[in-house]
Amino acid sequence: MKLRGVVSLLAVTLGMVLCDLVQRFLIGPLVWLIPSSRKRVLGAWMQAMAWLTSRPMVFLGGASIAPPPQVPFESGVLIIMNHQSLLDIPMVCTSVRGGYPLIVTRKRYRRWIPLISHMIRLYQYPVVDPTANRRDALGMTDNLSEVARTAEVPVAIFPEGTRTKDGNIGRFKKAGLRRILQARAWKVYVLVGDGFWKYAKFKNFLSGINEMNGEVAFVSELEWNDPTLDPDPFIGEVRKQMVAGLAQMRGESVA
Hints:
The chain has 255 residues and is α/β, with parallel strands linked by helices. The protein has helices at 2-33, 38-52, 56-59, 88-94, 116-123, 134-150, 174-183, 202-208, 232-249, and strands at residues 64-65, 77-81, 102-103, 105-106, 127-128, 155-157, 186-194, 213-224.
């Protein structure tokens, strides 16, 4: 089935290139000229991009990817999800009903990646850099706090910070999530994805795309009402729920 993997990969790549051109020369100028259209245009464009960069894997590659649960497109919504592969990005985007989230993203992705790098700048994603010196890191976390405090759309974060090789819930890098929780009150949607991690590498994607059975499940909706509280116990509870949610998806028992 390697041919199906190659065809679907080529289709996704072509889709990204075309989307990059449309985004640079049509979408970007449009929201600059008509600022009042920003949320409406960027929301529709995000949903289109997520579809174009994921559905060819189903139609051409034979993968099974279930639609994700839906989250409201409104201020004060925080999405917390685990990270298994690059497919998590279109999945968390399509989870926002008719809109888009601000995704906490690594700084290195702002350059040289077709579609993605320009998208980070256009959508004004907050960026972090684990390798930054203390001064730069402080500037980025301060910006993250400000973005979280003022965001008029949902904010999404993958607190593991990187993809896990075995698909299990990895150790959380808490600094970014702490800053977000300390910025304001939130309605927190906890999601867990599974079935994507086996195909994170190109060789596995090409040879086994037709066997992919990916889905994102709703774990819980939590209220974070007091930003002055220590966020660590709340973060620990979120991770505990994600571990239990993943085990339930896999039909495993939770100790």
